Input
Amino acid sequence: MANRIFRSSIAGRFDNYDGSGSQTRINWEARFARGGVGAIISAWCGVDRRGFIVPGYACIDRDDEIPFWRELGKRVHEHDCRYILQLAHAGRQRDIPGIEFREGLSSTSKPDPLHGFRARQATLEELRGIAAAFAEAAHRAREAGLDGVEIHGANGYLFTQFLSSAINERKDEYGGPLENRARLLLDTVRAVRKRVGDDFHVQVKISATESANAFLPWLRRGNTIEDSVQVCRGLEEAGADAIHVSSGSTFPHPLNPAGGLPLRDVVDNYDGLISSGIHAFRNYLLYRTPIVRRILQKRWERPTDKIEGANLDDARAIKQAVSIPVLCTGGFQTASVVRGAIERGDCDAVTIARALIANPNLVELWRAGDDRPKRPCIYSNKCLYNLLESPLGCYEESRYASRDEMLKEIYAVYEPPPYVDGKTSP
Output
């Protein structure tokens, strides 16, 4: 691999409603491959229609989707960049459920506490089906010529809902003590490893520290780093090749992605969730109330000097407990910070999302001698809160000479277009 910089899992609703991929998705990934990252971890990729997070994301739940991922991988490989497909199941955390299913499968029948996305406890047969779906999806990724898969066990999605002591309320072999709560994830890793063999890369992303009460203080705290160290040891034994360290029991979460809560952007885009969650309309009204806005922002926002490398302590604790590589995410955009983390042995590589949206050529800037971009990401999180209704990109106008310049960069992802003069693009 060219370097130890991974583009972390992020993308917009660039694809088709049925989960098939698009030219725009290829353009998006190629942008970062050209920018010099050593590897790209795809955005959330669904393995089962019941667990899609939101329509408009390319998935890999069917064999006829393999050619798209093969073409995407080919385009990324042209730039000496590797491609890892992130396999995911939403569980109850489904922003826009789609037309097939209204309630998510989970470790609980309680709706999520913030938005009120509906859920029911999955049956044992459904859980076995989920593990099998991940295995088949990983096999398709291998057939597509991709370089590996990442099982998404972090940030509030299905596996977090089982791992978390703040969420899981099952009374059977998938609930209660940590060994039981980790069972579904470990079974899935074993199923994937058995299906793809020993020579295909399989990594797992986890929320090492959940802090489930960071925004809603009446909730339980959830898993600690001590819990996650035990889980990671089990993941290594089950066949994982690497661990990707994140944080937070939901997405978004005050710890991930840490930074601002741009409530104007939240209000402009949140209305799309009103029909998805039983609390969403209440939240929409609260977000429009000035005094509530101030309270929410104070509860949510983190100082910018506390964001970069915030997960390194957790990564170090996990790295000391396992013998496989450890990746760490968390606001990285300063070369000396990344270099120091790797040299100290805090982690083996870093993953970056927002800072690469702001500066897709970040790695090239570092190579040219810049320790930090001249126009750095300011962690406003406007990119995140615009993606449900608008193309993903940097919406922080203060970083641009004009709004037109900002829009030009956002729309660049649509070049080349999928249809030109009666022909499809190459």
